[in-house]
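User: Run a structure prediction on this.
Assistant: Running it now.
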Amino acid sequence: MTLPNRGARPATGAAPGPPNSDSGAHLTRSAAVVGIATTASRLLGLVRDLSLAYYFGASNAMDAFYVAFRIPNLMRDLFAEGVMSSAFVPTFTRRLTTSGREAAWRLGTQLITALLVVTGVIVVLGIVFAEPLTRLFAQNFSQVPGKLELTIQLTRVMLPFLTLVAVAVACMGMLNSLGHFFVPALSPAMYNVSLILSAAVLVPLMPKAGFEPIMAIALGVILGGVGQIVAQYWMLRREGFRYRVTLDPKDRGLREILSLMGPGTVAGASMQLNLLVNTILATSQGPGAVSWLTYAFRVMYLPIGIFGVSIATAALPVISRHAATGNLIEMRRTVAHGLRLMLVVMVPAAVGLVVLAEPIVRLILERGSFTAADTQATALALACYAPGIVGYSAVRLAVPGFYALGTSLTPAVVSVATVVLNIVLNLSLVRVLGYPGLALGTAIAALANGGTLLALLRHRLGGLEVSETADCFLRISLASGVMGVAVRVTECWFAALWPNREFPISALTLGVEIVVAIVVLATAARLLGIAEFNNAKEQLLTRLSRILSR
């Protein structure tokens, strides 16, 4: 398949540039901006999870909420965040590059209108058929009186979140294409703030109104979706965007987005089938298993959300511009540099999550209804999930590369194959390991998915600076191993000194362990000459300094 801009002549003969090329430096700076904003949002996410754990623990109500939210989340993943963003940004960027802002605005308004229509229909159908949908996801909930009924109610309340987040993602894509990263990356904080306030303010009021306390969190989800749109729309208006109801099915850009979304939706559907199987398997592991796996996945996803998504978000517009002009050389330089940036962050993060799983979960979640037993169960799942963050991050970077090249079929086929592998692994491992086997199987499948996509993308681009990337991986793996040993020794010493750590001591000891990890890793990276690590550190410190000075 040729590049989307068929009139451009791709340059393929130049030698790969150095890691500190203009594209690489720009990517590092943009990723630092997104990372700072995302960190703020994710920290609020931790407060959100802390609040939920405090009020509900790993209870039947929390199980019901997570399963209910998984249904609108299913459709969100199919039609909004993942597939739509990857299809929209390259097309919007190409329209912006070749035809100007007015033409790009028209494409943006048409997409939003199409999303309102399509997701609106899905939401209505979902509300009508909420009961059979919920039974599909949680067959065993009927064994607990009232649990299935509560899940159905929560599902109906939260389904409109699909429409809200779809519009929010469209706004984010337009802003990213225009070079604005901070506000879009910060906008999910509105969702977290909404849930925190709902937990603190509305939970005590729900019983008085005749509702279950968990219903307050469902309302918070909807308010958070509205907040994500509001937080971004004002900046779009400042750039000249005005939304008007318009829809031209014959528009070439809109049809291109839909054609790219087709295979991606199939891939997304296969992923949701995987989630369905995992949910069914988790519900069969007894009370609390769904919540343990969900809490663990959220903690595991924290570094992905901060660093992996930040790098992928910053890379997508750059990759799309290079694809639009036919510049394969700079495109593969950007992808390769982004991959190395991910490795120098994600490999240490994976090691850190394995050796510090229990202290992390204890500090974040262990209070109120969340017991020490819940901490141990969640930490075990987290340690099994952790290796998968490298694979998840690689997928985040590789998939947009294929979309920018005008094809979504390859990642769709790989995704379907990965899902089959994941289901086979989980069915096998859950019999041997119980619920932790679901986490481990998911991690292995994620690594297989990321590795396969990168290999195929390398083939499409005619190279991916493999030797430099392999060297970077080996060096950061060695540095991470040294870091892991140092942190583990520190944790064992603290465990012997304070066997039963309350909150202040937990916070202090984990803080010390994180400092030890950073110092040892930075020292090892410097001694081993890992350029990407040192460059990323400098860019992050520079951006933080500028933000604080303001």
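DSSP finds 21 helices and no strands in the chain.
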